[in-house]
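Still learning. Any example?
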Amino acid sequence: MILYRPVGSAELDLIAESGYRAFPPRLPDQPIFYPVLNERYAAEIAEKWNVRSNSEHKGYITRFEVDDEFCGKYKVQTVGKSYHQELWVPAEELEEFNSHIIGNIKVIKEYGEE
């Protein structure tokens, strides 16, 4: 399954530290890791949230692939418009989720304040 994850600069730095192979552990107040199912939704989050919520005023879209069979254990959640679809991965399962990433996490778009 191809998934997307909008991230800010700090999270991207941690992804880079993993060799672009894993997402960092969630913070204590973040019980869910939620990759999204389409680039359109990821772009909305990166542009409207990530750019405004960090001091660098940058947002990025990452693209990655996860084993289809493994992803099947997570129900697709629609959280707004019909294309606002994401998987809800409990924070305690993120390490296992990372182990099912195929290849590298790639940055496919960057956004910044104009």
